[in-house]
Amino acid sequence: MTKLVARIKILPTEVEVNLESVAERLSTSIPVGMKLLSHVTEPIAFGLNSLIADFTLDDSEGQMDLLEESIKKDEGVGEIEVINVSRQSVRIN
Length: 93
Hints:
Elements: E1 3-12, H1 19-29, E2 35-45, E3 48-58, H2 63-72, E4 77-87
Antiparallel strand pairs: 1-3, 1-4, 2-3
């Protein structure tokens, strides 16, 4: 089955949220068959940062919705934005 890479911007619920902790929790709480490949912290404004994370998932119906729902369940996650989705063989810069 083809694998997809989804790049998702994760905004915290408040400035004090530790985004590294959010990334650690997500790496263990996302559904089976999905994986957190990498993540970086990106400054937004006034001390607020976002987490840009790359996840792999199967290219099948409902998988993206399942991933989004599992990310939103984390207590430190305020909002998410899907930036890009592509096949895993394609490199996202």
